[in-house]
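Weekend entry, working from home. Most of the wet-lab plans are on hold until the incubator is repaired, so I used the time to fold the two sequences that have been sitting in the queue since the last round of cloning. Logging both here for the record. First:
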Amino acid sequence: MAHSKDGASVALNILAHLAADNDAPALVFPDHVLSYAGLSARVDALARRIEGQKKLVAIAAQPSTGFVVSYLACLKAGHAVALLPPGDGAAAAAFHRDFSPEISFTPAGADWRMEETGTRPKGGIHPGLALMLATSGTEGNPRWVRLSGGNIAANAESIVTYLGLTSADRAAQTLPFHYSYGLSVLHSHLAAGASLAFCRGSVIADGFIGTAAELGCTGMAGVPYTFELLERIGFRQRLWPALRSMTCAGGRLSPELVTLYAEAMQAHGGRFFAMYGQTEATARMAYLPPGAATAHADCIGIAIPGGAFRIDAARGEAGQLFYRGPNVMMGYATSRADLARGLELDELATGDLAVMTEAGFIRIMGRAKRISKIAGLRIGHEAIEWALQAKGIACAVTGNDGAITIHAEATALDVTRLAAGAAAIPQRFIRVERHDALPRLACGKIDYRALAAHAPPAAAAPSRGLLHDFRAALYPRPVGPRDSFESLEGDSLAYVQVALAIEARLGRLPEGWEAMPVARLDAMAARDAAPQRPWFGNIESHIALRAMAILLIVLHHASGWPIPGGAMVLMMLVGHGFARFHREALFEGRVSAILKPMLRNLLPYLVVAAGFALAWRKIPWASVFLAGNLGFADPAKGSMLPYQYWFVEAYAQLCLLTALLFCFGGVRRAVARRPFATAFAAMLLAFGLRYGVPLIHDVGARKIFLLSYVLWLPLLGWAACFATRTPQKLLLLAALAVICPTAAILGGNWTGAWVMNLLQIPVMAVLLFLPALRLPRVLLPGVMSVAAASYHIYLFHLVIPELLRMQDYGAWGIAATVTTGVLTGIAAATLQRLALAGLSRKTALAASEA
């Protein structure tokens, strides 16, 4: 295969197996397979559309057939391709500003949209330039690595060689394509005539292993954090028969895990490859031969075929590590003018200090420069400093591969958020240390050694505090310090309860807290025991809307004023919560993800039913069987609970109906392919059922309690969660602009009907366009407490007021009813949380003793 610097070499390598007579699988999905012949036809058709003078093409690298087709077609047409992180509008805007691409590809639902700018940017493009990948740089202005077709071909060939890939191999797609490691998996498998399987969902999702096994995956790639996650689900004990190789790059995997996975794969009849690479070398530079993994688990191994290392020190001593090979980049680019430049280096300074062992393997000793490698990204400390200093923040940056520490002098700005944005990493990897004045050397330069010594410890021992709260919110699921809300698949009510606990302990909700282990959150709480709190804070809009809705319900019941609509908002939020927290589980057929929370939520409802049974001396069987809203029972006869409890019965019926539908593979595949379109269509159909069902099953005025009457609302909430593009959001609002007045008119055309239905329009607008609201911080604990207890407030808010007949005392009675109802609900929620936490602790203790 050719290693020239022009794009022609690509056609001899990663495009070589695209042929009309090649029926071998190329891209494999749970519901269909695209052969090399099919892929070739689509690539050729698009390449013919865009052929001509060399252009710069920006592609959002969303894992899908559309991305692979667009990417390969652009390479085949001889264009230069830049891969952008999918869904990151800011990154796309910055790239368009700096490089003015002539063509862009972005996902549009299940399809892909091609846009041509029509502009003719100044400056040519070097004929050898084939690919641009981002690496860390200053905020909003990352450095881009320029790679040639020869770079791509050489690295793909080397990987095929040392991994021993053949056309029989099939890799599970687990890494993003705009990341050089993830892209190299695609390149190497295409070059070998192998296939790539899109298993969908996280590697720790319950259905991932089953899907990977069903699709016949023979290989799997991951970064160190991937393997930490896999340990939490006992992956080494769940290896499927076809799995023959696992690879790890993107940072240092602990020698302990290298040994464990090398031994596990060897016992399984497979191989484990620990590897080393950088974007500047296209992807890979070194690998540790599987046979040496257990004895040399702390080494990166040897150079890949065609490459060579040089250590700037005597043998056995540590020195700077340099790499040579045909995969070394052409150079960097920060503007359009840089694209005309050719090859500028033939040796890469890796930025690492290394030593050659007696066995001939390279061991990394540390960073030669101020760089951290976090989540597979190389983060330059100076780049973060420049970004923060541009905001007027006097600071210095230290760190390691576990976290970045910002040493900042006094400022009112949110240093954590700004630093995370500058580094393009989650806020959980940022630590902030406050200084009256930064320490400096005699020459005036910042004393980084003193700062490093002053940096906070990387972790703290987990306390029982947040673990207690997680267990209470998610009982009966066992919760350990290494679990996260995301891995436990919590629902929307549990989300609010846990968020309230974290806010109370940390004074804020860290970005990405859902994916953080409980131990890490507890460590943050211990470290940030007395955080500085600004006057205003953010609260997610769905939490604020939940609190508003339940308060509206309580006030409506207390006063009798024509202000209904709160229950409609809550029903909409149920559907939104299904989509946000359970879509992956539902798409994989794991319906227990919504049935288990339903059972937990029915516990206090059964307490209410038992209370009424004792008072009436008669069991309300219709409500016990969750059928009281169907119209055949009567609370006056004691056969069902009072009408206000219809919501619980409709909610339970909705859970059961959803679980039933997602048991069918055809439904799952259709919804997973087009989640917004199917939800929007189903919502319109359900709105028709609202008026069609009474023609068949007429229960009079009680029709408003039927699930068929309100089913359109959770479908609306589901659609809102998947409305990721502005046209989709506007379509939902336009539909509501027609549906809501229609419902008001058909609902009696009275004041309450108009209030109830028109309320849904601004609620939907907030849900779609304002993911977070900014409120005075003094209000946040109250709002979150009400939202967290909203279900219990709904159940218990009239118990004490009706016993004391508070509503009979005018305005004061209304105020007392609302206050008592809210406090009763919060107290009930607190009691349940404490009881479940106690049960969870006893269960965990019993399990540990066993």
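Second, folded right after the first finished:
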Amino acid sequence: MVRREDLLLQPQDLYRTLDPNLLPFTTTDELEPLEGTLGQPRALEALQFGLEVKNPGYHIFVAGQPGSGRESTVLRLVEAMAKNLPTPPDWVYVHNFEDPQAPIALSLPPGRGKALKDDMEAFIDHLKEAIPRAFESEDYENKRRKLLDELDRRRQQLWEKVNQSALQRSFALQVTPSGVLTIPLFNQRPLTAEELSSLSEEARRDLEEKNREIQEEIAQTMREIRRLERQWGEKLSSLDQEVALFALRGSFEELLEKYQDLPAVEAHLKKVQEDILENLGAFFPKDPSRDGASSLEKDPLFRYQVNVIVDHSQTQGAPIVLERNPTFPNLMGRMEYRQVLGALVTDFRQIRAGALHRANGGFLILHTVEVLQNPLSWEALKRALLTRKLEVENFGQGWSAYPTATLRPHPIPLDVKVILLGTPWQYYILSTYDEDFPELFGVRADFAPDMPWNDEHIQGYARFLRRISEEKGLLPFSREAVARVVEYGARQVGDQKKLSSRFLWISHLAVEASFWAQKRGSQVVRREDVEEAIRKRIYRSNMVAERYRQYIAEGVVKIDTRGRKVGQMNGLAVLELGDFAFGKPSRVTARISLGRGNLISIEREIALSGPIHTKGFLILSHYLMGTYAQNFPLALQASITFEQSYDEIEGDSASSVELFVLLSAISGVPLAQGIAATGAVNQYGEIQAIGGVNEKIEGFFAVCQDQGLTGEQGVIIPKANRAHLMLQKEVVDAVRQGKFHIWAVDTVDEAMEILTGLPAGTLQEDGTYPEGTLHHKVMEGLRSYAERAKAFSQGEEGKDAR
């Protein structure tokens, strides 16, 4: 039998303290602020590799819990790398003169996209004045008049020739709005209707033949005139283009020379010149009263404008984009529409860039959950990364039941490093169920939730507090306050050998501690200010915990902390409410009867038992069979339940308690009600580690404190959880004063000896246990049930025989 005192933990085992005198400073003002990230060597190495490797498919997934410094670390590393990388080009969209529905994307060196836009605006503004002025010159008017006069002369010659031919055939010609009329003549005067009807048949046929010949000559003359007009139209157009070309030549040649190093831009400028010469009328003012509808629709010179969608004129190095609202348009870009006469219209000027456009050539940082929450964003992101192209289309365009005519902008080549910030669970889900994910995100950077408690990280905590004080304008921290913050970091991860790496928690604590120090009128944050901040934080969150304790105190929830009872004791659970968790004692009871070795969990029967709890419960029957049922069968039926529990029970941390109450019910040995327990149990009776040990102990201690500490109360925990204890000061003080106890056990035997006061007993060579031991009483109880079951079975057989 292990002595009960040997399993008892001492106050120094319950909380690891940091001696402030070991810290080499008085206040954090003496320290340099922390630079970089503390305690994440694995993540930093993975990030460095992922940022430096240039091959496709090596985008980065940063896995860690919120508040662990993922975003700030990524930003710091990316900023350090980006400033040494080349600045990517600007991107503009321009009008496609061959296919207006497919705007052309042009790439220009950084800053020259905006310059091209400004140059084109200045060029067009210049032409708006220069072209009309050139056409008002006397020289142009003379040349134009000369061409028109020559055209009139040639037309007159043709008409004179056909007139003479008609007169020779005794016909006159008359031009009317509906055409040219032929009038027969007699003695140089038109024939009257009576004279025409009195003509002989032969004379009438001769007249009709001459009229036909004249009509053919008229048609030939009209064709000739139209040919002349086309020729003169071309001559006039050539004259106009010559004049316009002279007007734009100087400014255009300057523009062409400025962008001669960019072949694509140069080609576009030449097409602009061709289009200007073909559409000179667009440069002359129109009368709105005559052309109101078209003038409302669009500026006829819009096609010469430049739409700058990505401007890196102010960017130093590679761009960094952190997109916190990655909707489909915000991520992939969009086409905006304007309303004209009740219709929605768009053109290349209304193409807008998305985050991928702005990050192209650099880094795009996204939060996984935000991308997945926005419809189509994830699929669009994957498609862009797989094809390495950026195509602008409107949201849901591919899902429309009735495809509509819209723009099809030319795609832009994509070269970007995407960094996704998420949790490990999100990484596992995506890598398992999304076949494209492993192909794209080849680097995983894991942020650990904790770091070792050592001098380096203690110093890092202090320097982090120095940085936070500087960034947020907080008071400096004394070394006693720093020591308390370090201890708080250990409590947050529930481990005496580790510190939390979720610096968001530490940052919040620092802000609140500084507040209470200022409230106190202090110039330095001291240990008591940190303690006050922790107390206030707990008070703001523990209303549910206090309400539950109140129900226990009022007897609504039945929890005994005094006396002894058979088949009953207190188990411990943890209830998590967001960022706050508390221990919740629950009464566990067992009842037994004659049966066939069945153990029934009432929670399992009504589907309130989770799979892990069910597994832990099923282990109990195998422990009983292995420990006791070697020479006789188990002939009982037992039911075990958590009293007044109305939610699902999950986890195996109560399986030890379930076993304890079962052994008590079988043996008839009462259990101390002032002692609660937690721990998983295996088939060999070993007690295994559980989670939430601090909250469980503190929850039961609070109930005992409410009902009055007797000096006999306490909690049994697995020995494997000993290093996880970072208990509240009032619990440690109660243990120091002998008012409360904590035992750490390895086996069921050790726990039952504490609960019953009886030795567990060791199995003897004859397969029995010594009298007076717990195991002997359990075995006798089981043997009694087996004998009664046998007698009952024989009695039933005798009845059947009669």
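Plan for Monday: verify the second prediction. The longest helix spans residues 201-258.
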